[in-house]
Amino acid sequence: MTALLQIDDLVVEFPGKGLFRRPFRALHGVSLSVEAGRTLGLVGESGSGKTTIGRAALGLAPVTSGSITFDGRDISHVSRRVRREISRDLQVVFQDPYGSLNPAMEIGEILAEPLIAQGASRRDALSRVGELLDRVHLPSDAADRLPREFSGGQRQRVAIARALALRPKLIVCDEAVSALDLSTQARVLDLLLEIQRDTDVGYLFISHDLDVVRHMSHDIAVLYRGDIVETGPARKVGDDPDHPYTRRLLLASPVIDPDKQKKRREAFQKLDPADFSVTT
Hints:
Blueprint: E1 5-14, E2 24-34, E3 39-43, H1 50-57, E4 65-70, E5 73-74, H2 80-86, E6 90-93, H3 107-117, H4 122-135, H5 152-164, E7 170-174, H6 182-199, E8 202-207, H7 210-216, E9 219-224, E10 227-233, H8 234-239, H9 244-252, H10 258-270
């Protein structure tokens, strides 16, 4: 099957701070793919480069070398006009559900905005708003309310509805549930899975939490300091990882049983970061 999103040997560098500072290389030749209707989970600690991959795919980070192909089209270096065209099929859900919504706009206006920008009439846009609110299990009167009138989980549902507005083929979920409490996280994750089953949308799901990624993903790629150190089916990588760094991520996840948590902590402390070399 042809990949919906194909990334090959992606290198991303950012300018160094100061006149004579060398550029910072965030990604060192990363390759991965996402198929339609499937989820690739990207997991790693802060600074590993996982968000940079998502931002590069969205055109928000520079591509120094390598290529990014979306739906058979090279989008590594495209104009703003082309990016606007691509946005119909490639959307994003950010981490902060409040910061990503305009606090001065009613929810109905927020959801209608991308539709109108793509040429839909106001009547058609408002009709679609009702469908979107129903899709993410929010009441129809939510359209007349402001973002501040909702909880964090409800605001994230609004953000998901906005991402779905143009019926995209792929959504980049960048730490989409990390700002939510555990019970709200579970409901939002279940909603994302439900939407995928019903619409065949693909997800590039970015998170620092291996347990969350394992629950959401068909396949997992583990990043460490700009390199992929392990890839494979979610069950294998999430339950029985091969790489020491992936095992460290797994052991860092808390468990309810205090005895098991103690054993995890002891095993975590025994892992040597010097072993976290690239083994792809």
